[in-house]
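Binding-protein-dependent transport systems inner membrane component
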Amino acid sequence: MTHSARQGWSLSWGFWAIAVLVPVSFLVVFFAWPVAGLISRGFVIDGVFSLDGLSAVLSSPRTWRIIGQTLALAVAGTLASVLLGVPGAYLLYRTRFRGRAFARALVSVPFVLPTVVVGVAFRSLFGASGPLGWLGLDESFAAIMLALVFFNYSVIVRTVGALWSRLDPRADEAARVLGASPVRVFCTVTLPAIAPAVLSGASLVFLFCATAFGIVMVMGGVGFGTIETEIWYQTTQLLDLPAAAALSIVQLVVVVAALLVAARARTRAEHALRLRGDDTTEQPWRAGRDLVPTLVTALVVLGLLGLPMINLVVRSFITADGWGWRNYALLAGTGEGSITVPVWTAALNSLTIAAQAAALAVLLGALVSLVASRRPRSRRLAGGVRLLDAVFMLPLGVSAVTVGFGFLITLNRPPFDLRSSPILIPIAQAVVALPLVVRTLLPVLRAIDPRQREAAASLGAPPGRVLATIDGALALRGLGLAVGFAFATSLGEFGATSFLARPDHPTLPVVIFRLIGRPGADNFGMALAASVVLAVLTAAVMAAAELVRPKEAEL
């Protein structure tokens, strides 16, 4: 091996070492340590290790009621999302019609809307004074489940649609020629083919539903709670760390199980996509064949996705004196003393913090994605790559409340005394956004044919140039979407921020939650108006990101 080749490999190994160590160090310090710190505090009573707190919590009927409510909500939300999302996946990814790109973008927006905004929208719809208040669904299981379906519908549509659009239609046609009914064709031919994508999307939806916080906090009231909200209640209201620790362990078990299923299903879905190639097999829309999925999708888009947001916007203009801009004018003040800074100041705080968090999350996510996209021949290295990918998915499911409270009790002494540092909230939000960045960039990089890298290397290109011209060039295709996801996620993050935001420097979701929880017509009107502002900001970010979405980033 020549000196230049040895130098190239040395530089390559040095880069890969940095690409692994920097994100892993970040995750250890700002995720694993705070979570472990909170859990360990819960098992230390008067300076002595004890399991009394854990046994007391697990023997409490309240704990099992909370666990039961969490699992029931996650299962119901997942089933409803799959049943409604599969027809949408077919319509938006299998058929061609005018306006399809706009419909896809419209369906994508709810997933990145802040959970506080979604909670306020459904609460204003089903509340006593709302247009559907007569249904009596305020603070009910059904209302919360519908809000979660609103939030996760696009996960199923995107995940299933990406695979469905590449299925060979000849298998379906052959089954019909042999006399099979459309229902039988779907159950025996189509469903087995899209099953990996359905399972992949369903496992992610289950994870998101089981760890919902903002929606349940806004809509659940005193009669309904999940593990996530119970952790918040035990830590902030009762200061019962053993109880919070026990619940965190239960949540980690659920999260790890869901992540294992999701990782296995995602691998099968990506394998199926590679087998079917990059060519889509879309068909022109036909009224007779596609009428049922069209009606179901239209009902979901107009009723479930559109109605809550339309109602939110309309009600934000209703005041005690009739229609007007009063609620928006009040955003320049502090309402009835419920908040310490004007809402517009909180909005500026959110934008500044989200920009910082997005920059950090995209930088770290790009490094993780580059490493996780490798396909080493060594079985040990391949296992390490899979482990790295799985580890960086953990923040998806671990309570943001756990992370935020963990920050307070671990990052309070040198060398990481960050309690008074303005960077603390961007770091917490970057931890939350990092998995979504990886999930956006990784499919793009995994779509690269390894033979492209081998061909470039055989022509004399050093490792650094191969990385820049092949991986770097294609990574840029997904960068806009990754930035959009990171920015939108940080903009609406509420769980960890609710612990870390100072009273004189709150973010917009924190201000909305404070307003919606206080009595008074002005406070409620300001909460509606502020929710509209936050929704518009988030939708604008994602609409811009959708314009540069690569097709590989659908998973």
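thats it. The longest strand covers residues 44-45. The chain has 22 helices and six strands. bye
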